[in-house]
Amino acid sequence: MTAERSAATYGEVVERDVVIVGGGPAGLSAAARLASAGLAVTILDEQPELGGQYYRRPAPAVARHWGDHRPEGGRLIAQVRAAGAECRTGHLVWGVDDDGRTLLASDDAGHPVRLRARHLVLATGAFERVFPFPGWQLPGVTTPGFAQHLAASDHTTVGDRVVLAGSGPFLLPVACSLIELGVSVAGIAEAGRPYRPSLRAMGTLGHPARLRELASYAARLARARVPIWQETVVLRADGRDRVSSVTLAAAARPTRPVRTVEVDALCVGYGFRPQTDLARMLGCEVRADVASGDAVPVTDAAGRASRADVYVVGEAAGIGGVHAAKARGLAAAHDILTREAHAAVPVSEARRVASARRRLERFTALTDSLYPGPAALLATLAPALPADTMVCRCEAVHAEEIRTTAAGSADGDLNATKAWTRAGMGPCQGRECGFAVAGLVRSVMPHRGAGDGESRVEVFPSRLPVRPVPLATLLELAGPESQKGDA
């Protein structure tokens, strides 16, 4: 398999046995196993270094002074390279060619690259789920993931006095990372009540490793005297040049304030959403997850999608954490090796990975049951959102415009609402506002019937390009004729 330039096809053309999109835990695990078995593997990631969000490499100066915060990530990356996988960092995969199977990408210099393979593994990860509130555009208001990235990878804080809010177990390790840097965490506002004793919570006893991890976070927060306000959400953030206070409300009555806390940073997030743009663009079947409201690819136990040559693994297949992501990556690698008859997978290895995957998915289901479902939260928060709240920051679209359009000319249709208001048509392509826009549309037309297939999934459709691409890249991809002037 070779990389070449064709007279008929402009840009570099890469053909491999396997192309893996995404250099996080799932993609790296799959790449290491497949390349070690002798398959021609290319793994791509848009970042300058492999690792994804979880194994993101620290800056050299930070690593020299503080060390590697997740050395196991460095070891896995080294394993991938040693196995002979081609590692293409700085490569953004932004679409699919007209043949429906060739991936379109741009390299770190902006030149177009076409990639084809017998097997495509999509390990595109996830992005944070946010919901707007008055003041969320103020400097100092960010997401927990961004705060964690700064703290763990760059050893930099988002502020000196911080409140974390939203929902999900991710808030706890972020708070601990900030505390380690000397930040005063004023409190954690959790929309649910997962930390109260219950019969359901007793199920965590069957997962001692994860329970120890949770206990470790809880102990560190207790030592730092960080309060956890359960059944509490953000009502608004206030400040002039920067956020200076956050007002919190009861989750069941999100318009009634319960306390105001002085801060210089506020981190709000409601977990993560699978990154499924490429999977949908490749024609893979998706289903509407009732609890989250997300579009989730339909896959078998090995991660194989409705298209036999496509696998969706890691967080892109559903949020489950780093351990589940690695198990999913290995399961896909085993299935590919079996189909290729390239190298027999030892029965003991296959059983061990399958067992780990099932165990971790049971834990994910348990965790999901302890926290409020995002769709249920959305049904409570969306109707209470003040009319003048800016929902789409890219296009400056407010809540009232979305509600009015959805109830009128858009007739309750999400994509028509997007077209009329431009909400979700900015550079982020709805990654920031899509969750909220869907909730606002549903809040004014709750009984509108849904159609069949993907139309039942209340997310914006996947469109080319999935991420902004320089015009020069598109011109080079089209060939020299497109670059001629009018003269």
What does this protein structure show overall?
The protein is α/β, with parallel strands linked by helices and 487 residues long. Helix content is 33%, strand content 23%. It has 14 helices and 22 strands. The strands form six sheets. Strands 1, 2, 3, 4, 5, 6, 7 and 20 form an eight-stranded mixed beta sheet that branches. Strands 9-16-10-11-12 form a five-stranded parallel beta sheet. A three-stranded antiparallel beta sheet has the order 13-14-15. Helix 1 (25-36) runs parallel beside helix 8 (322-340) and helix 11 (399-407) packs across helix 12 (414-421). 45% of the residues are buried.
Short précis:
The chain has 487 residues and is of the alpha/beta class. The chain has helices at 25-36, 60-66, 71-82, 144-153, 171-180, 208-223, 277-281, 322-340, 347-370, 374-384, 399-407, 414-421, 434-444, 471-478, and strands at 3-5, 12-21, 41-45, 86-89, 92-96, 103-106, 112-122, 126-128, 141-142, 161-166, 184-190, 228-230, 232-239, 243-250, 253-262, 265-269, 272-274, 286-288, 295-297, 310-312, 390-392, 397-398. Mean pLDDT is 90; it is low at 1-8 and 449-455.
Count of helical stretches: 14
On the 0 to 100 scale, the average pLDDT is: 90
How is the quaternary structure best described? single chain
Strand percentage lies at 15-25%
